[in-house]
Write a sequence for this structure.
């Protein structure tokens, strides 16, 4: 594998393997062509916070030694001004307000809702817009120019007017959880999804089913080594992430085939 890694990366073998699993005649009947869910998860990078240095070289390096100390107290570090010397593709990112920033990537998956199989996988640098950008990218890859109306379930992190507008232009109904929050100015943030969408039973079904995508992420982190990747760079970590999603499908298939008489 190590000797052929570059060739495997250049040929996009992981994505082709995932596609081949889904294209198998015994698997295709389990897939929905209309109803999907999307979500993202953080993949911790194989790099220490001590590797984060100022891009202009103005800060002091850690003290000498195998695990030299470094004092970051009171110092501001952002992706605009700092980068990891170990893995420049990794980005500082917080899971939420009040959480510590970690060096990580963001893995994205598109799941079909009938059987909970992953149909597209993508890995990107972590950012506040990466999830929505990846969702559009994965839908375009999976159903380019689809003539049937699709639905896409997602959590409230995807509730942005620009994203909902992009989906509607693609003939995709946004089954997104409503983000009913109050802004810092005291105004209530209006959701991009209104009663015209939420009143339909399909919206409730999408919101229930979409949570199954967390099973794939949980398996990938606990079993497939994505709790903290051992690779560096978007291409190599993305290769691992996509293969993990394909492997998750494979462990799901025996039960599906048994239940479906396959």
């Amino acid at each position: 594998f190590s000797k052929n890694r570059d060739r495997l990366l250049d040929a996009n073998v992981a994505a082709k393997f995932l596609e081949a699993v889904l294209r198998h005649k015994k698997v295709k009947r389990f897939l929905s062509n209309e109803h999907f869910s999307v979500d993202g998860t953080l993949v911790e990078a194989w790099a220490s916070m001590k590797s984060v240095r100022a891009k202009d070289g103005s800060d002091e390096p850690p003290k000498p030694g195998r695990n030299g100390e470094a004092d970051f107290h009171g110092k501001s570090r952002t992706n605009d001004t700092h980068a990891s010397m170990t893995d420049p593709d990794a980005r500082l990112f917080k899971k939420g307000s009040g959480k510590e920033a970690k060096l990580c990537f963001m893995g994205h998956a598109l799941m079909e809702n009938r059987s909970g199989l992953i149909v597209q996988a993508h890995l990107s640098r972590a950012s506040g817009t990466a999830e929505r950008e990846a969702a559009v990218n994965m839908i375009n890859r999976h159903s380019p120019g689809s003539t049937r109306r699709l639905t896409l379930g997602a959590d409230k992190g995807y509730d942005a007017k620009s994203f909902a507008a992009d989906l509607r232009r693609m003939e995709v109904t946004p089954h997104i959880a409503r983000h009913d929050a109050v802004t810092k100015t005291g105004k209530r943030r209006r959701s991009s999804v209104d009663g015209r969408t939420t009143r339909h039973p399909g919206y409730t079904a999408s919101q229930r089913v979409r949570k199954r995508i967390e099973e794939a992420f949980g398996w990938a982190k606990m079993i497939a080594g994505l709790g903290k990747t051992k690779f560096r760079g978007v291409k190599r970590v993305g290769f691992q992430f996509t293969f993990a999603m394909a492997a998750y499908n494979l462990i799901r298939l025996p039960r599906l085939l048994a239940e479906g008489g396959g």
